[in-house]
Design a protein that fits this description.
Layout (H helix, E strand, L loop, with lengths): L2 H11 L2 H13 L4 E2 H8 L3 H13 L3 E6 L2 E6 L1 H12 L19 H8 L5
Length: about 120
């Protein structure tokens, strides 16, 4: 992930409602949730939700698909992992065995670091 994309993603997540939406979609997993369910769960008016979902989509953190008459929103797990990897890729200078829990070999970030050749 490039710095500009990371800054855009972090900027999108820096707003409380967008962070709540993103976390809800992460919990929903790869099936995602219809917009109406997101609005109900978070008690957000539809117009406000639409604005925030657009911001998350522009930051490449959320994608959507149509299922019948519903629009389903899904967290982009690849983008989330890329952002977390970007934030941790130089952890411990990338040269020594890192003891930070988020970078452990068994974690998603640790697996990405190892795949890139960095110590996990």
């Amino acid at each position: 992930m490039e710095t500009k994309a990371a800054a855009g993603a972090l900027g999108a997540l820096s707003q409380e409602t967008r962070l709540a939406i993103f976390r809800l979609l992460v919990r929903a997993g790869p099936d995602g949730l219809p917009a109406g369910k997101v609005a109900t769960e978070l008690d957000v008016p539809p117009a406000t939700l639409s604005f925030h979902l657009t911001q998350l989509a522009r930051a490449s953190l959320v994608r959507s698909r149509r299922r019948g008459r519903f629009v389903i929103y899904i967290a982009d797990f690849d983008a989330m992992t890329a952002l977390l990897t970007y934030l941790t890729e130089d952890c411990c200078s990338g040269t020594i065995r890192c003891d930070i829990p988020a970078c452990a070999a068994g974690t998603l970030i640790g697996q990405h670091r190892r795949a890139k050749g960095a110590p996990a």
